[in-house]
Amino acid sequence: MKISNDAIRIGIDLGTTNSEIAINDGLKVEVINNSEGSLYTPSVVGFNTNKNLIVGREAYDQLFKSASSKSTANYLAEVKRKMGLNEKITFSRSERVFSPEEISSEVLKVLKNDVLRRYSDMPTHSAVITIPMAFDTVQSEATKRAGELAGFDHVVILQEPIAAAIAYGLKNSANENWLVYDLGGGTFDVALIAARDGSITVLEHGGNNFLGGKDFDETLIQEVIKKKILEKYTFNNLDLSLKNELYSVTYCHLKALAETAKIKLSTQMEVTVDVVDVKMANINQKGKSARDIDFTDEDGNIVDFSFNLTRAEYDKLIARKVTETIELTNKVISNSKIQKSTITKVILVGAPTLTPIIRHRIQKEIGIKVDTSMNPFTVVAEGAAIFALSQKVPQEVIDKDRNIPSDEFKLTLNYETMTNEVDMLVTGSIEVKDKRDYFIKVSSDSGFYNSEKIKLQNKSFSLYIGLEKHKQNLFWVYLIDEKGNNLNVYPHSFSVTQGMSLTGAPIPHAVGIVYSEQQSNGEWIQKCFKYFDRKSQLPLSKTSTFKTIKDLLKGETALLPIEVYEGDYETPDLNKVVTRIEIDGSNLPFTLKKGSEVDIQIKISDSRILEVEAYIPEIDLSLNARADVYNKNIEDKELIKQVDTLQEGQDMIANHLNQDQKDEIQNDIADIKQAMSQSLDAENKQKLDGKIKQTQDKLEKLKHSTSFDRILESYETLLVKVESTIEDISDNKINKALFETLDKIKAKATMSIKGRDAGALKIILSELERLNQTAITSSPEYWIGFFAYLIKRKDKMANSNKANDLIAKGKSALDNDDLDALKNIVVELSQLLPRDDREDMERQIAGITR
Fold this sequence. Notes:
Elements: E1 10-13, E2 18-24, E3 29-31, E4 41-42, E5 44-47, E6 53-55, H1 57-65, H2 69-72, E7 75-77, E8 89-90, E9 97-98, H3 100-118, E10 126-131, H4 137-149, E11 154-159, H5 160-169, E12 176-183, E13 188-196, E14 199-208, H6 213-232, H7 248-264, E15 270-275, E16 279-280, E17 293-294, E18 305-310, H8 311-317, H9 319-336, E19 343-349, H10 356-366, E20 370-371, H11 379-388, H12 395-400, E21 409-414, E22 418-419, E23 423-430, E24 438-444, E25 454-455, E26 460-466, E27 472-481, E28 486-487, E29 489-490, E30 493-498, E31 501-502, E32 511-518, E33 524-532, E34 540-548, E35 559-566, E36 576-584, E37 597-604, E38 610-616, E39 621-626, H13 636-653, H14 659-676, H15 682-705, H16 707-727, H17 732-754, H18 758-777, H19 780-792, H20 800-815, H21 819-830, H22 838-843, E40 848-849
Parallel strand pairs: 1-10, 10-11, 12-19, 14-31, 19-20, 21-29, 22-30
Antiparallel strand pairs: 1-2, 2-3, 2-4, 5-6, 5-7, 8-9, 12-13, 13-14, 15-18, 16-17, 21-23, 23-26, 24-25, 24-27, 27-28, 27-30, 32-33, 32-35, 34-37, 34-40, 35-36, 37-38, 38-39
Helix pairs in contact: 3-4, 5-11, 6-7, 9-10, 13-14, 13-15, 14-15, 16-17, 16-18, 17-18, 19-21, 20-21
């Protein structure tokens, strides 16, 4: 197979449970069988007893079907959910420490070798690798790194539902709307696609990175197999998970049983689950020679039994998770504003879609015909390979490992790799070193099109080529000298896919800048400035101007931070920070004044590579950054704090919610607390963090909707307190002046309450709080109490001699009933207290404003 290197020829579906690879020779797409003759390779990596790294079916069998303490310590599955995490993965038989992307790269290496074993001349310097629609920037970047670690010099990232749509689109010429329902081993995506005259556009999309066939297995283990065990055997705490030292081996055995039962129930109405020959770790023995023992309960009974599981029982078991996919699908349709009647079919992607109940519920509850004309296992890899041919490879990558013959003529071609036209202009130039006449000829591999010999004019040429409809057209290029000799030209071929084009892939979440905004009371609050909405089509680039919020002195160690976020929440803390630039005083030629302009540009490439540049015109300084390598690790204490914050937020507004709202929030918090009670690895912490953020966003919206009533309640409560405080002031002059001010505040409040103006009433509440403070400080008891507090803090004061002197004077003022003198002494004393570390607080505030 003689193939040019100018376009990518490989498409890869890097899956949670299984991975596939497809090649494109310019004429057809072929999914490559692995060494075992299978179209897919289990995404399992590990080390055997000889300390050799193995990938695929053998690794899967060692981890699950032949599970042991040694195998659980030396094999890893489902690493896709860890992509983007700063997690260190170790194997007892290896001295290396792996990152998730390094594990994924081993899967990719095996897939690449499967291609080379069959087609040794296939260019493998570049590949298109697919990702879930909902993968964030950091996860996308980690996937790209995995490809590079596997030896692909050029990696293009493509979202999985788009890849599936491309595979279907090549064979479909109708103008239609499609729904891609992509339920994989670990993730779920749904995308509404418009196919118009061969052009594919994503109209709307949604996804869940923690919902897939893996979760069906987990539900079967925890809700059926575990319950069956507990019905027959005695256990104090049967924690079936990989995290549990005693039962990790047991868990792997049961996962294999669950997965087998799940697959069989796609074609059978009933299966028998044999919970036999299951092992558990022997933690009472020490040393590497310790062997696993039979799975035994607290009374010493070996767990050994079988039970039957019907398809109806399984359908009921996974119903809740299937409902999540149906609800998300309907949400995507609703958000798109497209009439459901205009959607002609649902494209099924992923092995779990072979489950009959899923197909049945899609047709019943979504009401759209299901298209099963392509293999859900391989359709993503096929689409990726079709798309690959439209991606030109950088010349430096092409030439990197290629032996360039001395007699080769270099050809530069300009053409559209995907088009809806049937005739297309191709232009080019050839590097020739003499003045002889040269001719170019282009012919399609099928014989559909043959050009005349075209004479080069100033080393260049142009011609219109004819394309066969709805197929990949492979063309051969011939360079001929004036004597009729065929010369060695490179590239010698090119391909054009007719009947299809792709508008830019959408980003799954909004991207923007966190900035500070000063309120009327002087307080700085954090806000999100959105650069790109979710669904914005790649590539993207935008520049906006901000201003520094304070002076930054030359050489000063304090920083002005600039944070780029990704997420769809209005509250900055709920979004992910993907990169951070800090304007450092040590880099400044002179002091940067408050209000200095900062131009910030964000760029996102076709492959989701995010770059940000900050330029300060005043000092001609540029600062550059890319997305951080990893998503932030989440500590247990951080999750606990987040849950406490949720509970406090719920308690704050509970009296202002209707029963449905209250029940929804309480149920969300209860689910989160239940999840917190389980063993949590890095992956589950990310999943739980996402759930917490969703609930927090609900609370923020409820806080906003109830804000007027809550401010009014605070106002009315404080009003009673202020009136009482003023009445207790014995000085009639002060008392009268305070009541006059209070009457003015009440008059303004009456107008705000009548118009239900929450903003105005909040300002009035602040005025009332200041008046309350004035009333309190007008009372002698306040200053006497404050003086007593400062006496207790005298050991913390900076100047003990001065503090003792002031305290003595204060006591004398008290004895003489000299309130004015006491006030002045209290003020002086308070200034001797240690200052709060304001710099640390300021570092948490964005250093720019609008």
